[in-house]
Design a protein that fits this description.
The complex is a heterodimer. Chain A has helices at about 35-40, 155-160; strands at about 15-20, 30, 45-50, 55-70, 75-80, 80-90, 105, 110-120, 125, 130-150, 155. By secondary structure, chain A is mainly beta. Chain B has two domains: about 5-145, no CATH class; about 175-210 and about 215-310, Jelly Rolls, CATH 2.60.120.10. The radius of gyration of chain B is 20 Å and the shape is globular. The chains are: A mainly beta, B alpha+beta. Chains A and B meet through strand 1, strand 2, helix 1, strand 3 and strand 5 of A and strand 10, strand 11, helix 5, strand 12 and strand 15 of B.
Chain lengths: ~160, ~325
């Protein structure tokens, strides 16, 4: 028997949902990554999951992003499309070690090139602490970022969650 | 409270086990759990699959219900082994029973039980379609299956000095139900001196080569934020009662979750998740999932050890998002 593994994408996805028996669907903060990304502005980092200070952000990747920096590790999981990630080690500390969440940089960071990753659906990349990083995607793509809520985290739960 | 094996084998060839005032026995089809003034019976396959998770996860987060009556509740250093504590009928009539053990003591007995009661050809971590029968008189053992270690990355799977990737060479072939999952790797170009920091891997390919089901394993870490993806097929063999909020992100295919009140078992909701769906599991529920085809699920946990007490004392709300 041949099995077909079903993945979602911006072009095609199905959405399940909460069938409340004795509950409120809002308790489950139910969303779909591709639905949120399809309505997002490019490079917005929209929280689709939050556990106290920790968040999972969904990003619609299209074109070239700004540069970001973060004092702690983050992880980027490509859920659709192809994304290139450039990494730079800044010459000076850009973000305080205690600061949590990603910081948006103005312009290009000065520092040593660390390398580049070209990733596709299903690939998870380390965004290492203390580095600056930039995304590039020629076609619309979707990234999930495991991080801590910060200055760039956008929360619009009432808009995106099942009610 | 201490535990021991009776060393006496029954007619089916299995040992019995004593832990505190509990006596555990198994025959060809069933496991019998006895305690003062009470007892319960479970199918042997169901018991062993749940027991496997309890042992592998060191009693996991919160409550591991083997069924609607029997289970364990983790207090992270000690563990309650209970009968009826989270069943409204048992509790309301005073028929429930619970004993607290040092976690290592309880785990030691559970490991011995799992080893003696798991027969050759049966893998408690496998889906029914890919393993043999748990039933019948004792025949051989399956140490390779029951002694698996849970995968716990420190930073990210495949990173320097971290948990390894999976491939045909190290014994992880592609699962039959994920034969169509692309195995391409990211292109990594690291400048000299940055080889340890410039890292990526194909998570979906890694998951396609998992040889277990319903076994969240840490793949990426951001302080207490743990991404614990897992592959699921058939039914979660435990009913997991939360002691903190967790989140599910459906990476592929679909899972249907039956959600009930953690303490009473009263049905609350049915949550159907398809590829790309995201749902919170509140801190006051229990849940059991059903995956018609092998699927990939990202379980997202907050490992902060202070959380159970904060939720239990209502200092934190059970639902993570208010809107």
């Amino acid at each position: 028997m041949a099995y077909h593994t079903q993945f979602g994408s911006l072009r095609q996805y199905q959405k399940g949902g909460v069938e409340a028996i004795r509950d409120d669907p809002r308790n489950y903060a139910f969303t779909n990554i591709f639905e949120v990304a399809s309505k997002a502005e490019r490079w917005e980092r929209i929280a689709i999951a939050r556990n106290l200070k920790y968040v999972v952000e969904v990003v619609r990747a299209e074109g070239t992003s700004p540069w970001y920096a973060c004092a702690h590790d983050e992880a980027a999981l490509v859920m659709d499309g192809e994304v290139a990630i450039r990494l730079v080690k800044p010459d000076i500390m850009i973000v305080s070690p205690e600061h949590e969440g990603a910081t948006l940089l103005e312009g290009d960071p000065r520092g040593r090139a660390m390398g580049q990753i070209k990733s596709r659906r299903g690939h998870m990349a380390l965004l290492p602490k203390g580095s600056a990083y930039q995304f590039n995607s020629e076609q619309p793509a979707v990234i999930l970022i495991q991080t801590i809520a910060g200055d760039l985290t956008v929360e619009r739960w009432a808009e995106i969650c099942q009610k | 409270m201490s535990g021991k094996t009776t060393q006496a084998m029954n007619d089916a060839g299995y040992q019995s086990f004593i832990l505190g005032n509990y006596i555990f026995k198994r025959d060809e089809y069933f496991v019998h759990v006895e305690w003062p003034n009470g007892g319960h019976i479970l199918p042997a396959d169901r018991f062993l699959k749940a027991l496997m998770r309890d042992v592998a996860w060191n009693f996991f987060y919160g409550i591991v219900n083997f069924d609607e009556v029997f289970g364990t509740a983790n207090h992270y250093g000690t563990v309650d082994i209970f009968a009826g504590s989270y069943n409204a009928s048992y509790r309301d009539t005073g028929k429930d029973h619970s004993e607290t053990f040092d976690s290592e003591t309880a785990r030691h007995v559970f490991e011995a039980m799992l080893q003696d009661w798991t027969n050759e050809g049966f893998d408690p971590f496998a889906a029914p379609g890919e393993t043999g029968s748990a039933f019948g008189p004792k025949r051989g053992s399956n140490e390779n299956a029951v002694k698996r270690q849970r995968v716990t990355a420190k930073r990210m799977t495949g990173a320097a000095d971290d948990t390894p990737l999976r491939n045909d060479m190290n014994g992880y072939g592609i699962n039959r139900q994920f034969a169509d999952v692309p195995q391409d790797e990211p292109e990594i170009h690291a400048e000299p001196g940055f080889e340890h920091d410039v890292h990526a891997f194909n998570l979906f390919a890694y998951l396609s080569r998992s040889d277990v089901t319903w076994n969240p394993s840490v793949c990426s870490v951001v302080k207490d934020s743990l991404f614990c993806p897992t592959t699921e097929e058939y039914m979660l063999p435990v009913i997991h009662g939360n002691d903190r909020v967790e989140w599910f992100i459906q990476l592929s295919d679909e899972i249907h979750w039956e959600v009930a009140d953690r303490d009473t078992g009263e049905a609350r909701a049915r949550v159907i998740m398809k590829a790309g769906d995201v749902a919170a599991m509140p801190a006051d529920i229990r849940h059991q999932g059903m995956s018609p085809k092998r699927s990939m699920l990202l379980v997202w946990e907050n490992a902060d050890p202070a959380l159970p007490e904060l939720y239990a004392s209502n200092k934190l709300k059970a639902n993570p998002i208010a809107f």
